[in-house]
Amino acid sequence: MEKFKRVSTYMIFVFPALAIYLAVIAFPIISSVGLSFTDYNIYKNLAIWTGLANYIKIFKDPVFWFSMRNNFFVIFVSVFGQIPLGFVLAYLIYRRLVKRSVFFQAMVFLPTVISTIIIGILWSKMFSPIGVVPRIIQVITNNPDYSMTIMTNKNLAMIPIGFVLLWMYTGTYLIIFLANLQNIDPDIIEAAQIDGATDGQIFRKIIVPQLYGVLVLTSILAISGSLRSFDLIFAMTGGGPAYYTNLLSIYMYNQSFIFHNYGVGSAVSTVMV
């Protein structure tokens, strides 16, 4: 009887979270997978079974593969840009190599707390042909006729977005690494210095091994976060010009809500999951 009461108590606490999970995550995923095998007409509320036709369609679409390439670019910037830069900045603050470190932390972390939509619109204006960035380049190169075309270049349009992603999220990793660096016992580092260890040896032999778990965690966070860059890029470019800055999420959005190919959009979302 006592065991039954204990199990009942557990279920009372678990059920609300489980119900929310099923309603908000599990059911939409299952519905999306089912919809991906159909040609769904929202106006008639009619779904016609098409099998793998939607998957074949997206795999034959060059825009899908271009969007996937852009996704990998965002992942690359996140893992090999934001994390190392955040780590280096945190280490500089930890070793007190930066003056006014509190102000420095605040400035680096500030973009993280600003609305993503606001940042996207702000940088889209700055990178526009009449924006601040082209003007700065004109002054530096002493070329008043310079016109920024990088955003219209098929192979280079993602570079400004990569820069914005780097600027926007590095502060998050700085805070994570700095918090963990400050948890390292200073006696360990002091003992290593007494034994004659150089700063480089301390960094390689003590700091990095102590933060190995954090590096793995931040890499996972960076990869998962890079798949949710829809709002920033949509605010900056809308996936354009053409499809040059499309991500899979923007490609899915266009298929579902612009072209009303809900089955195709569901197939893309299933591939992403």
Describe the 3D structure.
The protein has helices at residues 2-35, 53-60, 62-94, 101-113, 116-126, 132-141, 158-181, 186-194, 199-210, 212-226, 230-236, 248-258, 262-272; strands at residues 38-41, 46-49. It is mainly α. It folds into 2 domains: 2-53; 59-272, MetI-like fold, CATH 1.10.3720. The chain has a two-stranded antiparallel ribbon. A hairpin with a 4-residue loop joins strand 1 and strand 2. Helix 3 (62-94) packs antiparallel against helix 10.
What labels would you give this structure?
273 residues; mainly alpha; MetI-like fold; 2 domains; two-stranded antiparallel ribbon; 13 helices; 73% helix; flat
CATH fold name of the largest domain: MetI-like fold
**Please, what is the average pLDDT?**
86
The fourth-level CATH homologous superfamily of the largest domain is: MetI-like
Q: Taking strands numbered 1, 2, ... along the chain, how are they ordered across the largest sheet?
A: 1-2
Total strand count, please? 2
Report the sheet-strand fraction. under 5%
Question: What pattern of helices and strands is seen along the backbone?
Answer: HEEHHHHHHHHHHHH
Roughly how many Å is the radius of gyration?
Answer: 24 Å
Computed structural class: mainly alpha
Task: Please bin the fraction of helical residues.
Answer: over 70%
Principal-axis shape: flat
Top-tier CATH class of the largest domain: Mainly Alpha
Using the 3D structure, state the CATH architecture of the largest domain: Orthogonal Bundle
Question: What is the terminal separation in angstroms?
Answer: 43 Å
Main sheet record: 2 strands, antiparallel
What number of domains? 2
Q: Can you tell me the residue ranges where pLDDT is under 50 for at least 5 consecutive residues?
A: none
Query: Helix count, per DSSP?
Result: 13
